[in-house]
Design goal:
With 90 residues, the chain is an all-alpha fold. It contains 4 helices and no strands. Helix 1 runs antiparallel to helix 2 and helix 2 packs parallel to helix 4. The longest helix is centred in the C-terminal third of the chain and has 24 residues.
Length: 90
C-alpha cells in the first residue's frame, strides 16, 4: 500500500531530529507526513477512483499545512529550513 517502512521512517527521523530521540518536533512530523503524502500521490496516480485513500491524502495534507503554519508562527528560521530541505513550494 502507501505506507512508509520503519527503516524509511527512522532515516527521516534521524535526518530531521533536533536532538537525540526527537520524534515529536514539528520538523520531524512534517517530514514524515511529506513522505507519506508522496507515497499516497503515487498510489492515487495508479488508482484515481480510490476515494478513501484520497480522503486520507487530503487529511495528511491539511495536517502538514497546520504544522507548517504553526512552525511559521513560532520560528520563521526553522520553517524556512524545513521548506528548503523538503523542497516544498513555500
Amino acid at each position: 500500500m502507501a505506507c512508509i517502512t520503519k527503516d524509511e521512517k527512522a532515516a527521516i527521523i534521524s535526518k530531521f531530529a533536533r536532538a537525540e530521540g526527537d520524534t515529536g518536533s514539528p520538523e520531524v512530523q512534517i517530514a514524515i507526513l511529506s513522505a507519506e503524502i508522496d507515497r499516497l500521490n503515487e498510489h492515487m496516480k495508479l488508482h484515481p477512483h480510490d476515494f478513501h485513500s484520497h480522503r486520507g491524502l487530503m487529511m495528511k495534507i491539511g495536517h502538514r499545512r497546520n504544522l507548517l503554519n504553526y512552525l511559521k508562527d513560532s520560528d520563521v528560521q526553522r520553517y524556512r529550513e524545513v521548506i528548503a530541505k523538503l523542497g516544498l513550494r513555500k
